[in-house]
Write a structure and sequence with these properties.
This protein has helices spanning 56-73, 94-108, 126-134, 147-153, 162-170, 193-206, 230-242; strands at residues 7-13, 17-22, 79-82, 113-118, 137-141, 177-181, 183-184, 210-214, 226-227, 247-250. By secondary structure, it is an alpha/beta fold. The strands form two sheets. It has an eight-stranded mixed β-sheet. Strands 7-9 form a two-stranded antiparallel ribbon. The radius of gyration is 18 Å and the shape is globular.
């Protein structure tokens, strides 16, 4: 499910409402330092032979054109959301693009939020972190509590260290959203004690302002994955809810 445009939508998001999508990656391929078993964009190896990353000027022009069109048509926008076909913070112009997006949001849709969906692998880089602190919703992913478990579900690029990610997220001082996929595969289960207990300890350590847990909603590259119901996920995270954490659950 590759996005063929730099700015796409708006589409309805389970988590963010009427969402205008931002793809800072190739429009005919996937560009990511994760290769998640559940990624709706498919495996990295199956991405088309396209490695072009749009620069800040191109993104600004595409976004302003789309915002003008939506405004003229009376189309509501709840969130301008950086997602795309991979990890958006890999675009070298990411900090400038965030500044441009905030300025255009304020001009055309001041009530809209700016959201960034990220695997948090680059949150330790000062320029990336500073850009993420400017947006309304920095939504950072941790799917499992150890490098070994993350290898099973996310297949990260060499050098990934969940402890480094945790230390980077501590810099937000709780002002971010932690996002986690819950599913079962042949060798990974979000509900197993080794995953769930360790993940909840990370939530307690980071104390994000909100936790988003969700499950499979679209076709996945790995076959045989099983989703969880909202009721099951609520049962999994009930200890956190009882402790006062705000948890959004989407089936």
């Amino acid at each position: 499910m590759l996005r063929e445009e730099t700015v796409f939508g708006p589409i309805h998001s389970r988590r963010l409402g009427n969402s205008l999508g931002m793809n800072l990656l190739p429009t005919k391929g996937k560009f990511c330092n994760f290769d998640c078993i559940y990624c709706e964009c498919g495996w990295n190896r199956d991405g088309r032979d396209d490695h072009y990353l749009p620069n800040a000027a191109e993104v600004r022009q595409a976004l302003e054109s789309k915002l003008k069109e939506c405004q003229a048509n009376g189309t509501p926008i709840d969130s301008i959301t950086f997602s795309g076909d991979g990890e958006g913070t890999l675009n070298p112009d990411f900090p400038q693009i965030i500044d441009d997006t905030l300025a255009l949001r304020d001009k055309y849709y001041p009530q809209a939020k700016v959201s960034v969906l990220s695997n948090a692998t680059r949150a330790h880089i000062p320029a990336i972190f500073n850009a993420l602190t400017k947006v309304d919703n920095p939504i950072m992913k941790i799917d499992a509590p150890t490098n070994e478990l993350i290898e099973k579900i996310n297949h990260p690029a060499p050098g990934y260290d969940v402890k480094r990610v945790i230390e980077a997220l501590k810099q937000f001082k709780g002002n971010f959203v932690l996002q986690t996929m819950m599913l079962r595969s042949k060798d990974f289960d979000s509900a197993s004690p080794e995953v769930l207990d360790g993940w909840m300890d990370i939530v307690r350590e980071l104390r994000p302002r909100e936790v988003m847990v969700y499950t499979i909603d679209r076709p996945t590259p790995e076959e045989g994955l099983q989703k969880y119901s909202e009721a099951e996920m609520r049962q999994f995270v009930q200890p956190l809810i009882d402790e006062g954490f705000k948890v959004q659950i989407k089936g």
